[in-house]
Amino acid sequence: MTRLIDLSVPIETGMPVYPGDPEVSVGPALTVARDGVNVLGLHLGSHSGTHVDAPYHLDDSLPTLDELPLERFHGPATVVDARGRGPVIGPELFEEVRAGVIVLVATGWPFGGHGHPYLTAEAAALLVERGVRTVGTDALSVDPTPADAFPAHEALLRAHAVIAENLSGLDRLIGQREIEVSMFPLRIAGGDGSPVRAVARVG
After folding, report:
1. Neighbours of 10 (CB within 10 A)
2. Total tally of structural domains belonging to the chain
3. pLDDT single digits (tens) 63-115
4. Whether pTM exceeds 0.85
5. 43 belongs to the catalytic site
6. Active site residue: 57, 114, 116, 153, which one?
């Protein structure tokens, strides 16, 4: 038996966002009573909720969202259990990671919380060296929040990797042997990132 597990947070008005990002507002633009149909108006940033970062997020010369291969957003995954390990996630947790997998880092941190665990530059560099090109976390960022520098983003995005942030419920995947993850972004021309509906298939 296989089952699908939603790894996304709901998009809703007032939800937590990274400091300085656009606030999220969701409300009716059209209604059945007035207009004959229901249509929501959405105001949000490209990094709202569960989302992916394209390399372009960091540097104008790097690939945009629509220039990346779809394989960056779908494939076999492995979950690294970083719960209770303190704020710094070093390379020792990734020694067994192999190329061609999506690496999901489960910190157990509450959605939107600052002071969350984050990857060191060395950990991000090791993942790149191992051939990993998609890294996800249930925290606001793979770097500290707030931050003056973004060494983990630098190491990953300059290698044309994709970063997924604000994933939800990664603890439900710990111990699962076969995990396949999909987190396809909206097809935003020239995009630096996009909200995603992240889903894991386990079985």
Report:
1. 11
2. 1
3. 999 999 999 999 999 999 999 988 999 999 999 999 999 999 999 999 999 99
4. yes
5. no
6. 57
